[in-house]
């Protein structure tokens, strides 16, 4: 964890803010479309919007790739978009079940990865990101990183439990308010709030940069997780 990490010779290349913003907008647009379709009782169209969001992300990755990889990603994106169109026109899956699986499994997967890194013999995920960002991590920052890893191990799973409880007692619409609206808002607020808290609690280490943190998280030395602990 550091303000910018720009002073390090091995610091990761800064991610392009435009690319990060476009990816975030695609994800938010897909979630908003899914939520509105659920409220309109158009479950098949909601599932199609989710599939189209995946296709858009695939096509965006294709634009950033080169050569054969660009062709493969573009082809996969077009194929996925076509599947979404077929789903909207003539549902192939039970839309209600298919809508539940991606956010539920996605949040549980995130929780599982962070929880795995908290097991004995492993390096907490946020501590690893901090070490890649700044090299040596002071003891107080290391303790903070471990606590933040616990937050990310618990929060996504808690949100999905709340969403499934809302589904059981309030139906698909209540589930959508939590899974498609509260979920991204809470995760974003937690991510930004941690940066504000860290800047206030540890001013001696500089002002944390959200863009720099995202750049470090995309660095191959910080991911993929899980990985064994390091000295």
From TrEMBL:
Keywords: Membrane, Transmembrane, Transmembrane helix. The keyword Heme does not apply. This is Ketosynthase. The chain crosses the membrane at residues 20-38, 44-64, 71-93, 99-119, 150-169, 175-197. It comes from Rhodovibrio sodomensis. The keyword Membrane applies.
């Amino acid at each position: 964890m550091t303000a910018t990490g720009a002073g390090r010779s091995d610091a990761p290349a800064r991610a392009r803010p435009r690319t990060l913003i476009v990816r975030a907008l695609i994800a938010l647009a897909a979630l908003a479309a899914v939520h509105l379709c659920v409220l309109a009782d158009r479950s098949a169209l909601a599932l199609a919007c989710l599939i189209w969001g995946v296709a858009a992300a695939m096509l965006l990755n294709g634009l950033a790739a080169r050569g054969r990889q660009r062709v493969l990603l573009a082809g996969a994106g077009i194929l996925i978009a076509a599947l979404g169109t077929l789903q909207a026109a003539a549902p192939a899956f039970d839309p209600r079940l298919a809508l539940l699986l991606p956010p539920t499994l996605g949040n549980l997967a995130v929780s599982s990865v962070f929880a795995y890194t908290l097991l004995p013999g492993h390096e907490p995920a946020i501590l690893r990101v901090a070490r890649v960002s700044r090299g040596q991590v002071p003891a107080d920052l290391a303790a903070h990183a471990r606590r933040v890893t616990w937050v990310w191990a618990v929060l996504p799973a808690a949100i999905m439990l709340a969403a499934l409880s809302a589904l059981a007692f309030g139906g698909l619409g209540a589930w959508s308010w939590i899974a498609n609206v509260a979920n991204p808002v809470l995760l974003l607020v937690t991510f930004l709030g941690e940066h504000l808290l860290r800047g206030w609690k540890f001013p001696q280490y500089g002002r944390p940069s959200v863009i720099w943190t995202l750049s470090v998280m995309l660095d191959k030395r910080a991911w993929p997780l899980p990985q064994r602990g390091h000295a």
